[in-house]
Structure formats: C-alpha cells, structure tokens
Amino acid sequence: MLTARHSASALALIVFSSYCAGTPAYELRIEHVTIVSPDRSAPLRDASIKVIDDRITAIVHGSLPPDGSSEADIIDGRGLYIIPGLIDSHVHTSDLPGIDNSHEPAREQIAAAIRKQTPRSYLFFGYTTLIDLISTPESITAWNTYEAHPDLYFCGGVEIPGGYPRIQFVSAEDRRSLTRYMLVQRGEEGKAPAGIDPVEHTPEAVVARMKQDGALCVKTFYERGFGEVDELPAPRLDTIRDLVKAAHAAHMPVLIHANGTDAQEFAVKAGADIIAHGLWHWNREQEATELTPRAKAILDGVLKANMGWQPTMQVLYGLQDLFDPGYLSQPGIARVVPASAIEWYRSAQGQWFHGALAPAFLPKPVQESHDLQAQWNAARAFIAPPIVRDRNATHYMATHGARILFATDTPSAPTYANQPGLNGRREMQHMLDAGMTPLQIFRAATQTNAELLGLAGEVGSIEPGKRANLLLLRADPTQTIQAYDEIVKVILRGRVLDREELAAGR
Fold it and tell me: How far apart are the first and last CA of the chain?
C-alpha cells in the first residue's frame, strides 16, 4: 500500500537522516482512509492525515491540499481503517517467558533471541505504547537500543521488606527497582534490610526518587499469598495512603497489585487510582463463582471511586496453557516466538515451570500418569473457578460503566504461555467472552489507558499534535476484534513498518 517513490532502502536512509541537523523533516501522507478514533462519535470516512517527523500535523476530509513537497511518502488508504496504536498498561519487559534467572546464563543465545524479538512481537500485534510496572531508567535505556520498539514508560515498584513480590525470585532488573523504591513503614525501621536507610525509604522519599528517575507512575502491592494462603506481610493502610498522597502531589498515578476481595477492598480505602488485576480470589468465598454480595459490594466501591481496573484475564490462562500439549504448535506462536525458544520450551529442561506447577494443579495420580491429555483436563478443571470469577467480575464492571484499562501482565510468571503481543490478542478474546463489546475493548486499549496514565496529550487518539503511533487495518475494530488480525501497516513515531517484517525469523 506504500506508493511513494522511495524504495525500502531509501526509506531507511530517510528515517535516519531526518534526525540529523539541517536535514528536511520527514513527511508522511495517509490519503483517503477511514479514521476510527475514540474521541470521535463515528468513523471519519475519506480522510487524509499528514505527519511530519513523529507528529500528526493535519487531518482533513478528502485530500490534503498540495504544499509543493515532492518528498513525502504516501499511503493510499482506500478501503482501510486507521486507528491509534494500542497501549498495554501492564507489562514486565525485563522478564522472559519460560526462562528465569537460573536459566539465562546457560541459555544466553536463546535469551538474547527472545529479548530481541520481544519489542517486535508487541509491534506485530499493534502495541506501540507499553507501561512496565516494575522497572528502572536503566532498563528503559536498554530497551531503547532496539532498532524497532514500542514507546516504553515505567512505574517504580514499591514493596515493603519481606512482602510481595518475593525479591529473591524476581529478575535482576526487577530486583533493582524493588530495592531502589522499597518502602519502610513508619515504626518498622528495624525491618529494613541491610543497605536500606529507612530515612531514604519513606513514602515521600521513594516517590521523589521515582519522579527524579523519570517514572510515569507508582506501583505497589497488596498480596498476602495466593488464594487463602496467608504467608506474606502486607502494607498497612496508613502507609499506602501516605504513598498515594505523595504520588498525587507529584502528579503520578498509583497502581496497586490486588486480585482478591480483601486486596481490592484495601485498594479502594487507600485511594489508589488503578487496580492492577481482575478479581479472581474471593477471600473466604473460594467455593463461589457467581458474584457474591461481598464481591459485588467491593466492585461497587471501585465504581464509586471511579478507579481504573485491569482485568488481566490472560494471567490465569498463561498458567493453564502450560499443560496444553498442543500449545506450542498453535497457529501464531511461530510468528512471534524465535524457533530456538520454541525448541527449548519443548525440551525436558524447558518444561521446568510446568513441573513446578504440577503438584498444585494436578492430582497426584494424574501427575504420575504422564498422560498429557489427562493432565490438560485436570489443569483446566483446577484453574476454572478463578477464571470464571474474574470473567463474571469483568462482565459486571463492563456493564456498569467501569473505567477498564487494557492490560496483560506479560509475562505474569515464568510461563512460556505468556508471549508478548500474542498475550494481548488473547486478552481481547477473553474480554469479549466476558461480555465486553469491541468498542469497549478498543477504548480500553487506547483512550482510557492514555487518560488514566497521564498520556492523553501524546497518544490514545488520532488528533493533530499527537504522536504518530498508528495502525492501518482492513476492518473496523469497534465492530469486530478480528480486525486486529488484519493489521496492514504499523506506523511508529511516524515511520511505516511492514507487519510481516516484524515476525520472528525475519
């Protein structure tokens, strides 16, 4: 569809040279396209868009007026739809699907291949903006060295000593963030680990350090253990209220990891801005799957407080699908996962996390049977109740006007069934299955994410002055989520990328 006179090699030269001093600005024109943007009540048909460098500079109905330029690249958009690039507001770019700290030194080439493909896989599925919820400026700098990469913002991760996530089990990059922004509660200075000065780890000091580091947001945690397990310390309410107060003074939104009824109730009382999970653990009501009065009351509290809410349903499927004997052969896996990684995932060593989960997911006779189909059936039965709880909670929120943010928590655990980009496409299907409409999903992945994360001036809609992160599609995504399967071009900071060139192995 790119009809400009420049060849691919010449375009690459232009992309590079446009950043050099004294060179003319790069210009892109997308002509006679249908604009679908969440700020519009209806699609704008037969529209044309002008982009200079990385900014949208003009939108008109019909043709752009001639300006005498013969250097512009032109995309003929007839029959196509253009939308804002998608935003995933919950990722962990330092973590690798299926590989933990102990594996990476021995699998250095595989890990390098996964890291190189990760930003391309996000782009392949249309994600041009990501929010890493536990990161550091050093990790952002490393990310920006990749040739093609989504825009990446980060939150500092705030945990209390000994709390969730258990610092000894996270990646080295996450450990740096969690240590740098660790929060020592007032009156518990004696619990500070060696090397942590409590004076430098108050809510006010931690937020100030994040702000100086360039963080977009603050992420904290309320997690005593999964399900009814109660084994980890959780922060006090006064502590998180102080953290929220400090963050708001610095104009930073606060996200809180909370996937249980106790945790989401705590989040509402603390005044957090966004709950960074769906509701799948119903404390002291784990036998129920239909909304209980208590679960409904807590969700009503979220609605009343006008908080953001991330369903993150793919988290649970990412655990379940480790037991699917056909998962690695599914269509789409090879498009976004390096062949060397798939080969390792199939190996006995690559199945390590499957083995770690098996005692909890499978009855002992099924585990010892080595019957893969029986294990798959048992794993689905085990994880079904929390999946249904989260689906029902998501349906309730979607039908009651919640501010739902599109988020995947990729990868939520060291599971190879949480693949970048692909996770997002599957999250969309789960949202649809929960009763969300394609329009609600579209808004969640664009406008709502941008608004609640403070990025609405840059991304989330197609307007003059905003960053030119755009997707060309063959169908309207407000009518069908299958539209995301037919991405024609990814436009990243004004530069046109061929989707097929982003696939693994290219």
Answer: 20
